Amino acid sequence: MNIGIVGAGAIAHFLLKEINQKDHNDLRIKSVFVKDKRKYETVASQFEVELFTDLTDFLSSGIDVVVEAANINAVKDLVPDIITQKDVVVISVGAFADMELVTKIGHLANKYNNDIHLPSGAIGGLDILQNAHALGKVTYVSLTTRKPASSLITEEIEEAQVVFEGKAADAIERFPKNMNVSIVLALAGIGMENTKVTLIADPHINKNIHHVEITGEFGEATFTIKNNPLPENPKTSYLAAMSILGTLKRMNGKIRIGG
Ligand SMILES: NC(=O)C1=CN([C@@H]2O[C@H](COP(=O)(O)OP(=O)(O)OC[C@H]3O[C@@H](n4cnc5c(N)ncnc54)[C@H](OP(=O)(O)O)[C@@H]3O)[C@@H](O)[C@H]2O)C=CC1
Ligand SMILES: O=C([O-])CC(=O)C(=O)O
Question: Record's Pfam families (predicted)?
Fold first, then answer.
């Protein structure tokens, strides 16, 4: 499967190293869409990929699937065009807090018969939530995220501080680089307005910790993950990058486990 990536930051580098410099069967990154080729010219030689700044050229470069690893604005600007030609994996899931965009991209995906994949990113438990919500009988979903203070605020603090408390819809507005997880959780369950979020800046930790609580007719579930950060961008958890690789492998296989 030939892959094109949008973005050349921390997640893209993880994927380039894993996929193009190790053996992941027939996965191969061929093309990278960037805003500025000069900034990333070493990426082309180091990973044997071609850089593109023109979307039409990028999409016709022999790729089968596009992975977005850029940001929310890139999803809004590029995915409506990409989905008319290719399957797409989106990691800046926060873009889908905009329900108009979800409707538009969903309509185009149907019309052109391409798929949108939203990896679980830095969290887990989405299988439980979606199954539990199949009858619409989930009553409560919350996410409590604790990150190193420097990932969330610029001021120096001595003690852990709640920097946001409210609904997922507002969490992603306030923290677009840190709260994509709240939106994938909301999409899998009871929505942007009902998914409760607490975000804590903690000067004493070096992991990105997400704690999910779900209550419904099925019973109750809790889930905590203590993520190691990606060294190139500590705001981003290692597992978020890995979840894209996992998604690509599952797309390329015929046996689907869980879900
Ligand atoms: N769903 C989840 O659980 C998670 C999602 N994320 C999200 O994943 C995304 C990527 O994360 P990460 O790799 O750490 O971020 P980085 O900041 O390290 O990299 C982002 C890259 O995207 C590029 N970029 C931005 N806009 C465009 C565009 N319009 N076209 C092409 N390239 C573009 C940037 O280029 P330049 O430097 O030139 O601006 C940069 O190379 C972020 O949105 C992040 O919030 C992260 C963690 C978890
Ligand atoms: O990587 C993480 O731990 C979560 C994150 O940044 C996001 O959801 O935007």
Answer: Asp_DH_C, NAD_binding_3
- 7 and 100 in a single domain? The answer is yes
Containing domain of residue 247, as a range? 2-118+239-251
Ligand 2 geometric centre to CA of 147 (Å): 9
Q: Is residue 96 part of a domain?
A: yes
- From 49, 54, 79, 91, the mutation candidate for ligand 1 (largest count of ligand atoms within 8 A of CB) is 91
Digit-coded pLDDT (tens) for 28-83: 999 999 999 999 999 999 999 999 999 999 999 999 999 999 999 999 999 999 99
Which token pair is 211?
């704690």
For 39, counting Cβ atoms within 10 Å of its Cβ (0-12 exposed, 13-18 middle, 19+ buried), the class is: exposed
Does ligand 1 lie within 6 Å of residue 71's CB atom? yes
Write the DSSP string, 114-143. Answer: --EE---TT---HHHHHHHGGGT-EEEEEE
Supply the pTM of this predicted model. Answer: 0.97
Tokens 């619409």 -> residue? 136
The Cα angle at residue 98 between residues 94 and 102, in degrees rounded to 5:
95
In this predicted complex, what is the ipTM? 0.99
Cα torsion through 142, 117, 20, 57, rounded to 10: -130
* Atom 6 of ligand 2, nearest CA residue: 178
Annotated binding site for NAD(+): 122, 180
CA 187 to chain centre: 13
| Beta bridge partner(s), residue 146 | 200, 209
